[in-house]
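Need tokens for this chain, all 339 residues.
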Amino acid sequence: MPLKIIRNDITKIACDAVVNAANEMLAGGGGVDGAIHKAAGSELDKACKKLGGCQVGHAKVTKGYNMPCQYIIHTVGPVWQNGRNGEPEQLASCYRECLRLAKEYKCETMAFPLISTGAFGYPREEALRIAVREITDFLLQNEMTVYIVVYDKYCFLVSKKLISDVEEYIDDNYIEDHFMARGSRGFSRSVRANSRGGFAAGKAVSEHHTNCVEYEKQTLDQMLDRLDESFSQMLLRKIDESGMTDAQCYKKANIDRKLFSKIRSNPNYKPSKPTVLAFAIALELTLDETNEMLMKAGFALSHSNKFDVIVEYFIKNGRYDIFEINEVLFSFDQMMLGA
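Here are the structure tokens for all 339 residues:
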């Protein structure tokens, strides 16, 4: 998955480049900056002194030293004032410059903290939106795996209104917590309904028996000759119908190019459920179309699964931003799409 939001200590991420949220003197400080300087060791301090500082919105590179990365990219984010003094553009520039340097140094993997959201006071929700926008714009044109690393899920908050709406939808549709309380009443209603519709039920049983007889007359070879299209075949058909290129689709789905190549080359490829749903979101499928694609891969949406209920909420409401969905899934401790 090209963009991943993960919960971890950024000083322990093994990747090609780690981004440091630095100060203009590159002198080390608190928060992420202090942690990286401590983990990298005294050689990093010496290297930073030779760089002569760094301006807001710019970035400079050192070795990783004792960190489990090859490079540390130091960038200086803006101090939040009121949002009307160029802070959004300065923060966006931090991400663009770091990504540019990572590409220049031929990095295949890199990890960002949420720049400026610590002592510099940048609102986390807005900072995350800018980070995701700049990283995804870059990934649409480049192949790289990028991590946004947060210490825990409370280090940022997506829209409180959105979280509230999703929580309400979960409460209305998620049955696991309420099954025991409602199960007996549901069962009794079902029994009463069947007793009132006895003739209809008997007719259905009769038709089912007839269908079974016809089914038994088919040979296994005949059944195998009439297989439906596979997940891979449906996906490629939907991509053609959408007018997107393959690359546009798998990038919008936050899917790695190598994984997409496997799916394209193997009509019988068996994807994971998050992969299927990632493509459904990228193609902006309806709920019925999403269920059809899931069925091709042997899955279904279920109201006994919180992950499924959350994804269903976004599809029903026509919200197909995969990174917004993943932010909410992350907030609810669920696996994310494209993983």
